[in-house]
Amino acid sequence: xxxxxxxxxxxxxxxxxxxxxxxxxxxxxxxxxxxxxxxxxxxxxxxxxxxxxxxxxxxxxxxxxxxxxxxxxxxxxxxxxxxxxxxxxxxxxxxxxxxxxxxxxxxxxxxxxxxxxxxxxxxxxxxxxxxxxxxxxxxxxxxxxxxxxxxxxxxxxxxxxxxxxxxxxxxxxxxxxxxxxxxxxxxxxxxxxxxxxxxxxxxxxxxxxxxxxxxxxxxxxxxxxxxxxxxxxxxxxxxxxxxxxxxxxxxxxxxxxxxxxxxxxxxxxxxxxxxxxxxxxxxxxxxxxxxxxxxxxxxxxxx
Length: 303
Description:
Structural class: mainly beta
Shape: globular
Number of helices: 3
Radius of gyration: 21 Å
Number of strands: 19
Number of domains: 1
Low-confidence stretches: 1-11
Helix content: 10-25%
Strand content: over 45%
């Protein structure tokens, strides 16, 4: 009779497991003028466990004193095993419809979507995709805005399970995008100073790529929006994914924050991806900050 034996190595093998992490909300910010009001996260939803599953939230007909409004918001987060590679897939989606900000920024529909896929083995760092992200009938002062998107800005999953913040190919792409903004003619000083600082930090990360540094790093930003078409309003300027609108403020479209976070039982930092469809810094007709259609996805394997 045949018997099954187990080697000491097999007996001591610990099967990998995964914790899912995802968040989404449709609108948040702080309006300071003409009224002072914090805008709490609308339709917030969070997934933060090992079981995965699917969660949704909704919000309808929200108005901040008629100054900022939307007709419908929906958020979804989910986590499940992949049938393709037996890994773990985390999906985070934020959908905002009928957005209107001071009658200046409007959109029929903005969708931010982030999905990460952690392989079963050697899967500390995930592959990421932003497929599903879209801007439908985005307008400035009633004029339609044409966007050129690059949904593959983060590229392929770095080799050797290396962090995105230590991956030369990804960092060079972010550097090129950032340089196009910093070198643009007419860039306001406040924005130039901000992006000069971003560029200096990216160059620092690139210089340490080959050092094998596995420590935690500050987050960096890039964008799915490569360019913005011409808008026939006097004084309006575009710099990469950034709109500068006189008497209104600056608007960043499709902005991604790539950072690292430590979790319980993690032996090294875990990469997260936060995508905001429209991020505004208001000045003049209104003052404050606003984020529309925000999603975050990551997760971590252990051991």
